């Protein structure tokens, strides 16, 4: 039973470059979430998918950010024209509704982005 | 982004002491989750709560879903050095599957 997998774990990029992160959820989970976390803060919601449909997006998800989940399995989060303020850990989580355990979400280990 | 109020922000305690922390919201939640996060890692689920008034334990950890549905509490009994880390609460309201997270409680245990 593998957990949520994210890669790359670390990415250093120059300002203005594009970066892409990938998330592979727990295999039977139909919901997938992206969160952003900066130092000293709790995770902040960015967006979530149910199967391949993107159902909700935060205002934090600016025009430079795009997330996809084309086949309802893995997801990618792309940041275009990166800025120093994008430096953060990007967390992916997944869940599946269960009568016993509700909509409990499980996180991956995160992808650290440093924009220099 | 929106975050829940969590207190205390940080605490130093002696090994063997009990710890209490809480999370409050102005909104009513239908699910509360508690996580622990170590530096550089993703949050790890500790306890999930689904009903108002529910009290759930996981080893030395006990969490409660407040009866007003606007707060939750986490207690750690007989703390040990490996309890060091940041503890986050997360709440979900009806009509959405997203979770809002607290600001975190940083726990340091003195041996």
Give a quick summary of the entry.
Chain A has 116 residues and is mainly β. Chain A is 0% helix and 48% strand.
**Overall shape of chain A:** globular
Characterize the biggest β-sheet of chain B.
6 strands, mixed
Structural class of chain A: mainly beta
Task: Give me the count of strands of chain A.
Answer: 11
**How much β-strand is present in the residues of chain A?**
over 45%
* Largest interface chains and counts: A-B, 30 and 28 residues
Average predicted local confidence, pLDDT of chain A: 93
Alpha-beta content class of chain B: mainly beta
Please state roughly what percent of the residues of chain B sit in beta strands, choosing from under 5%, 5-15%, 15-25%, 25-35%, 35-45% or over 45%. Answer: over 45%
In percent, how helical is the residue content of chain B? under 10%
- Alpha plus pi helix count of chain B: 0
What is the percent of helical residues of chain A?
under 10%
Summarize the helix and strand pattern of chain A as letters.
EEEEEEEEEEE
Radius of gyration of chain B equals 13 Å
- Gyration radius of chain A (Cα, Å) is 14 Å
Keywords for this entry:
heterodimer, A: 116 residues, mainly beta, seven-stranded mixed sheet, B: 111 residues, five-stranded antiparallel sheet, 0% helix
Write the layout of secondary structure elements.
The complex is a heterodimer of chains A (116) and B (111).
Chain A: E1 5-7, E2 10-13, E3 19-24, E4 31-37, E5 44-50, E6 53-57, E7 65-68, E8 75-79, E9 88-95, E10 106-107, E11 111-115
Parallel strand pairs in A: 2-11
Antiparallel strand pairs in A: 1-3, 3-8, 4-5, 4-9, 5-6, 7-8, 9-10, 9-11
Chain B: E1 5-7, E2 10-14, E3 19-24, E4 31-37, E5 44-49, E6 55-58, E7 61-65, E8 71-76, E9 85-92, E10 100-101, E11 105-110
Parallel strand pairs in B: 2-11
Antiparallel strand pairs in B: 1-3, 3-8, 4-5, 4-9, 6-7, 7-8, 9-10, 9-11
